[in-house]
Amino acid sequence: MSAFEKVLASRAKDRPTGLAYIIAIFDDFIELHGDRRFAEDTAIAGGIARLNDMPVTVIAMDKGNTTKEKIYRNFGSPNPEGYRKALRLMKQAEKFRRPVICFVDTSGAFCGIGAEERGQGLAIAENLMEMMTLKVPVISIFIGEGGSGGALALAVADEVWMLENAMYSVISPEGCASILWKDPKKVKEAAESLKLTAQDLKKLGVIEEIIAEPKKGFESVYKLLESKLTDALSRSLKIPAEELICKRYERFRKFGVFKEI
Amino acid sequence: MLKKGLFKQPKNELEKGGRMPKKPVSEQGTELTSQCPACNLKTPVTMLLDNFNVCNCGYHFQFNARQRIDFIADEGSFCEMFDNLESVDIISFPGYEGKLKNAKLASKEREAVVCGTAEIGKNKCALFVMESGFMMGSMGSVVGEKVTRMFEYATENNLPVVGYTVSGGARMQEGIISLMQMAKTSGAVKRHSDAGGFYLAVLTHPTTGGVTASFASEGDIILAEPQALIGFAGPRVIEQTIRKKLPPEFQTAEFLLDKGFIDNIAPRKDQKQLISKLLSMHKRSW
Ligand SMILES: [Zn+2]
Questions:
Q1: Taking each helix axis from N to C terminus, what angle separates A120-132 and A241-253, rounded to the nearest 10 degrees?
Q2: Containing domain of residue B173, as a range?
Q3: Has residue A260 been placed in a domain?
Q4: Which of A10, A43, A145, B72 has a CA that sits 20 to 30 A from residue A79's CA?
Q5: Which of B182, B244, B257 to mutate to test the interface with A (most CBs of A within 10 A)?
Q6: Is A8 on the interface with B (CB under 8 A)?
Q7: Do B97 and B228 reside in the same domain of the chain?
Q8: Can you give the CATH number for the domain in which A105 is found?
Q9: Which residues pair with B164 in a beta bridge?
C-alpha cells in the first residue's frame, strides 16, 4: 500500500473505533464522564476496567461508525474538556496505581471558537507536561488517525504502538499539500513526504510496535493486544516510578536530528 | 474533522504577512518612516526604535530576536548559548533545504530561536527569544533542542527562565519529529518546574499551533504583548471550518485576558521593569 492508501485505510468508515477496542479487550468497563471543570466531551471516552483481573484506566478517542454516532462523538475531534477529562482520569489512575492505556484516533483537536475560547492549546500543553511525570505506566495505541497535537495529547507514553494501517502525522496530507505547496492535488506526494505510516515511524523510532492487521475482522487484533498489554504492563508495574518517569523523559528527549557546527 | 478545501488559505496571519507587517519601513525622501496600520500615522524609524518599536497610538510593530534581547537584557549581559545547532533535512522533505537557506539569509540567524543567559534588572536568568523571520518561528528539531537545553541548563543552575514566543507552529518539513519537540520541550519545562524553577512566558504576535500547545502555555506566569494573536488553530482555519467571519478581537491578547488564559498584558515599554520585578520576587535563597 502507498502512504496515501494507508491514510485512507486509517480513516475507513468500517474501522473499529476506540470504544470497540475497550469493550473487546477489557472486562467490566465502567465509563466515567466529565472534566469536572466545564463539560462532558463525548469525543473521548474513559473509565476503569479490568485487563485480565488487573484494574486499569482506559481512555479512548472514538469517532463513531454511523452518522448519528459520528455527530454524537464530534467525529472524534476533542474539545479542551476531552483532554481535561483524560488528564483527570490519568491523575486518578496515578493515585490508585493503575496503569493507563490510551487509544488514539482523531483527525485532530477540534478547531472552533469554543475550543479556542476555552484554551485548546493550554489543555494539550497541560497533558504533555503532566503525562511526562505520571507515576504509573502509560501505553498509547494508535488505531486509526493520529492527527498532530490533538493525538500527541494522549500519547506521551512509555511505549507507543500502532496498528499496521494507522497513521500519525504533524499535519494531514491535505493540509500539507494546500498550505505548503498551495496545491491540494499533491496529497499523495504529501502523504509520502511526511513519513506518517507505521513502518516509517518505526524506522524513526517514534513507535515501539506495529500491530499487524488481518484482512477481515479484528478479533485476532484484540486478542493479541490483550496479551501484549498484559505482558508489557505487568513488566512495567515492577519498575520504580522514578525510573519509569526517567525512561519516559529519555524516550522523548532523544527526538531531534541536527548538526552541531 | 477535516473539511474539503479547509487548508486553501494561509494558516495564520503571519503567513499572509498579516496584522503586523514584516517590514513596516517605507522610503520617503531620505528619512525612513513606518506607517502604522492602526492609526495610519507615519513615524520616523529612528523615533520608533527609541520607543521600543511602538507607535504613539500604542501599536506594537514587530521586533526581531536581537532587538528584543537588546531591549530586555541589561547592557552587555547576554551570553549566547547553543548557537552552533543547525537544522538538517531529516526526512528528505521537498524544498526544505532551500527554505532553510533562505531563512538564514532573511533573518541572519541560524535558527528560529536565540538562547542564552542574561541579566534583567541585575537578575540573572536563562533567556530564549524566538525569531519570526526564520520560517515564521516554526519549531523543528533545533528549536525544540535549544529550548529543551535552555530549561535543562536552568534546572541545573537554579535559574529562572524568561521566554519570548512567536511561532506559526510545528515545522511541517520535519514531519513527526517536529511534533515530538512539543513533548520534549514540555518534559524539560516540567522538570524545571518540579525543581522549583520559575518560568515567565511572554507571548508575542503571533503565537500559534504547536508552540501554543506546548511551552508557550506552560509558564508559571504568562504575559502577552498588546494585540498579539495567540491561539492553537489559526484564525483562517477556524473561519473555513465554521464558515463564519471571526470577530476582530478573537484570539487577541486582550481576548485571552478576558477569557482567563493569560496573567496580564505587558506593553513593551513596561516589560523590562515588570520582568525585573517578577524575577526579583522569585529569587531563591538556596
Ligand atoms: Zn499608530
A1: 120
A2: 62-285
A3: no
A4: A10
A5: B182
A6: no
A7: yes
A8: 3.90.226.10
A9: B129, B202
